[in-house]
């Protein structure tokens, strides 16, 4: 039998150095990570077995077993999931592939204390085992391979690892941790149960722990705990989302979110429902606190996991949500879809369409609820508020600053919900530097005789505020919404009115400005137009093709001239965007 030594990928070596040298604060996370890997491995087996049931061999009951040996100072986590071939062990345990860990790397500061805290929050997968172990041995056999195709992987968590073939009857993987001197506390049923309850209760597989019993010492020897060979289940072993809401604590919802997203922050809010009727499914949808770095990438992954009757089917089930809600994370568990459903089938399924619409409605309802409680009322109304509602204060503001620009895409994408989305919009305006003005707020402040909601799109708030287009509106005390997201120009094409009031760009046409003028102003413009006719003609000749018309206008107060777009023409902001895009 040959034993081969391999070096870790450079990033792994770097990560291991960090894990072993600066992590003392939150040791417990190693068990969460290893249990989560065992659970993933069982999910993978279940999924592959849909097409090839023989993979179950004679062990269809998937489970995770934890045992320890105080004398040998080992803690072992065993699963009967998919397992690894020799090649897979080399690749998966010697390199870093997952994006969560890469993101972790991008956040490293070089400051040991800060970085250690970061690991505690993030978890770094398999390698976190080295927080408590000075050697890790992994023994595995991949489902479907024969017992002599087992592999033993072993490392001290420094630069290298060893791999050798072994014979292993049991399908799946055992991770054997050789505990460090200062981590012997983990060889204890009490400690293991505590961590499982905290981090892994929602795992849908049974997690079993070998039972111990007290044995009196014989012939004057001291008594000791001995293993009984019996196993007890130490978690609830039902998928979190299948449990009734009232039986799930906030801590459990948060732990589940963090497990499926690798987010180190708790979510902003969530909604959990069992939908009954012609399409039956469970939805557990979370809004994160922060936008991911790839929110604007076309190829980014969606955040929903699809299960069918508790069986994991796929990550990134993008068909379950419209693109403008791509920031949502969570789980959908359908009772109706076939187990062998593919991505292509998902696109066409009527059940999926019903689920997507149901998810959309729930997310919008959740946002409406947050928006309604964003500002704490004063006096008695505040006292009457439940603690739960009080805790919602400020959340919509956070949501909007992280995801508002994405939600705006919905104006163009989701006709059926356009009105609901319009109510969720928030803007800066000539009366508010922060994007906190809703269209309803604006309407409530409209002046006598004002017939439109006015807005201005610009590249920045500063540019918007300095625009000469605003002069007349300022003079008249009329509020103008200031829009500075790249998506605004496009999105506003789809929002021509709000509850019966038209939306009007201040950079367009002259027509309805007349309505804001009194008789004297109109007369002044007419007189000036006649008086300045020769000047206007000369300007028109000089500018030639570049302009359609040169006019005297009441639009300006301080500036001598400005550009406007003819009714139905392209706005300067949109023209700039198209130019930047090479059109
Ligand atoms: P992640 O779980 O996010 O992919 P990890 O560092 O936790 O990252 O694990 C790395 C990889 O090692 C996994 O993606 C998987 O391929 C493999 N692996 C780890 N533990 C197991 C296990 N118990 N059974 C099978 N494969 C495993
Ligand atoms: Mg993992």
UniProtKB/TrEMBL annotation:
Localization annotation: Cytoplasm
Subunit record text: Homodimer.
Gene: htpG
Family: Belongs to the heat shock protein 90 family.
Keyword annotations of the record: ATP-binding, Chaperone, Cytoplasm, Nucleotide-binding, Stress response
Xref: PROSITE patterns: HSP90 (PS00298)
NCBIfam families recorded: PRK05218.1 (NF003555)
Region (A): 1-343
Domain Histidine kinase/HSP90-like ATPase: 26-183
Phylogenetic classification of the source organism: Bacteria, Pseudomonadati, Pseudomonadota, Betaproteobacteria, Burkholderiales
Name of this chain's protein: Chaperone protein HtpG
């Amino acid at each position: 039998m040959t034993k081969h030594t391999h070096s870790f990928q450079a990033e792994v070596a770097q990560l291991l150095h960090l894990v072993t040298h600066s992590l003392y604060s939150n040791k417990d996370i190693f068990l969460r990570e290893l249990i989560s890997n065992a659970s993933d491995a069982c999910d993978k087996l279940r999924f592959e077995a849909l097409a090839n049931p023989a993979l179950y061999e004679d062990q269809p009951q998937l489970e995770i077993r934890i045992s320890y040996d105080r004398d040998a100072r080992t803690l072992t986590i065993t699963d009967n999931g998919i397992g690894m071939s020799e090649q897979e062990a080399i690749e998966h345990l010697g390199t870093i592939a997952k994006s969560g860990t890469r993101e972790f790397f991008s956040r490293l500061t070089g400051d040991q204390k800060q970085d250690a805290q970061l690991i505690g929050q993030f978890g770094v997968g398999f390698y976190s085992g080295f927080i408590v172990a000075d050697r890790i041995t992994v023994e595995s056999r991949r489902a479907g391979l024969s017992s002599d195709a087992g592999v033993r992987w072993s490392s001290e968590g420094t630069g290298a690892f060893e791999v050798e073939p072994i014979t292993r009857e049991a399908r799946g993987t055992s991770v054997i941790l050789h505990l460090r001197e200062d981590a012997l506390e983990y060889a204890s049923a009490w400690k293991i149960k505590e961590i499982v309850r905290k981090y892994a209760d929602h795992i849908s597989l049974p997690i079993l722990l070998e039972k111990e019993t007290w044995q009196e010492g014989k012939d004057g020897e001291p008594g000791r705990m001995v293993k009984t060979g019996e196993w007890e289940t130490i978690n609830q072993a039902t998928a979190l989302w299948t449990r009734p809401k009232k039986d799930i604590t906030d801590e459990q919802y948060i732990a589940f979110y963090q497990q499926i997203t690798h987010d180190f922050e708790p979510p902003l809010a969530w909604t959990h429902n069992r939908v009954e009727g012609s399409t039956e499914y469970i939805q557990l949808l979370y809004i994160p606190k922060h936008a991911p770095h790839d929110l604007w990438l076309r190829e980014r992954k969606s955040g929903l996991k699809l299960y069918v009757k508790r069986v994991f089917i796929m990550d990134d089930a993008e068909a379950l949500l419209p693109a403008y809600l791509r920031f949502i994370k969570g789980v959908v568990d359908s009772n109706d879809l076939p187990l062998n459903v593919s991505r292509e089938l998902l696109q066409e399924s009527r059940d999926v369409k019903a689920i997507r619409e149901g998810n959309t409605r729930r997310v919008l309802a959740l946002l409406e609820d947050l928006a309604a409680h964003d500002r704490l009322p004063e006096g008695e109304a505040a006292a009457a508020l439940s603690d739960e509602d009080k805790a919602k204060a400020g959340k919509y503001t956070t949501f909007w600053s992280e995801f508002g620009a994405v939600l705006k895409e919905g104006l163009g994408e989701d006709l059926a919900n356009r009105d609901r989305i319009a109510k969720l919009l928030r803007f800066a305006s000539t009366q508010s530097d922060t994007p906190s003005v809703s269209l309803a707020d604006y309407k409530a402040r409209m002046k006598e005789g004002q017939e439109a909601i006015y807005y201005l799109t610009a590249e920045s708030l500063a540019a918007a505020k300095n625009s000469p287009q605003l002069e007349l509106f300022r003079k008249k005390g009329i509020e103008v919404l200031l829009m500075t997201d790249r998506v605004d120009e496009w999105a506003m094409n789809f929002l021509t009115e709000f509850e019966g009031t038209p939306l009007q760009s201040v950079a367009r046409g002259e027509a309805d400005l007349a309505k804001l003028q009194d008789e004297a102003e109109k007369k002044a413009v007419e007189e000036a137009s006649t008086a300045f006719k020769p000047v206007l003609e000369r300007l028109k000749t000089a500018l030639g093709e570049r302009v359609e018309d040169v006019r005297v206008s009441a639009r300006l107060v301080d500036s001598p001239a400005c550009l406007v777009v003819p009714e139905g023409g392209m706005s300067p902001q949109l023209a700039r965007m198209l130019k930047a895009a090479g059109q």
